Amino acid sequence: MKEVYVGLTITALGSILPELTVSLLSALEREHEISIGNVIGDNLITITIVFGLVAAIRPFEVSLHEVVSTVPFMILVTLILLVMIRTRTKVTVSLSLMMLFVAALSLVAQTFLLQTL
Question: What is the pTM of this model?
Answer without folding.
Answer: 0.56
